[in-house]
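Minutes, project check-in
Item: structure for the 296-residue chain
Input as provided by the requester:
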Amino acid sequence: MHEYAFFLGCIAPNRYPGAESASYKTSEKLGIKLLDLEGGSCCPAPGAFGSIDLNIWYAMAARNLVLAEQMKKDIALICNGCYKSIWEVNHKLKKHKELREGVNEVLKGVDMEFKGTIDVWHLAELFYDPKICGLQKIRDSVTVPLEGTRIAVHYGCHLMKPKKERHFGSTEHPYWIEEMVAALGAEPVEYRNKMLCCGAGGGVRGYDLVHSIDITNEKMINLKEVKADALTEVCPFCQLQFDRGQIEIEEKFGVKYGLPVLHYCELLGLAQGMSPQELALDLHAVSCEPFLEKVL
């Protein structure tokens, strides 16, 4: 069993608790044990904190890293924004001595020191990695195949870019999450401008909601064209933007899509036999019932 300190982030436990629950339960079936990272704070959000005060961004992220260092466990997480902050700060502090020393000067105030002894992983990449889990193990865990469904994938910006600091291969035409969707028995579908931002990133959602959901609407138009039954993603903030964003699009633009949006861990949970109640799918803004009728 591979063990990781699980960094929850803010949005999953507060808005999509099913994604949180599914992360623990589905991982266990794939040989991954997620341990609570006690005392963790906001990552902090890269668009908000990173755009206003980099020193605070570095120090808060470093504090979260130190908590995992004290557990002697690598971090696993399920949010692209958290990945941007936690992975990137870990990467930069390991490489740049002066930056590391400056951050440790701040951490002294809470009796902590960043040592650079752990790594940071997105749970999706651990699922895909054959050394940790891999596609065959995902296939073997499926008890309710999602056959007959067409599922589109949204990767999100912070997971894949900047390319020079990421390790996922192609950042323009990735297909590895589609492979994980196919492992559940579903048909992954391509759509125009797949790698376009969800519309929320970089603080845009908080600063200019109309502009933000206009970007989301462009994605929804493209998803409708390919007749997707659902959209899956690996970031609760993207999930919020696509799920709650559809309600906002209807309110502001008068267009209704009704496309269910599920975090990959929720999708995997369904395929592994978790009930919609266990996954708290009733808390989604857009009803998942049309999709559930096809798979259950």
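Outcome recorded: DSSP finds 15 helices and eight strands in the chain.
No further action items on this chain.
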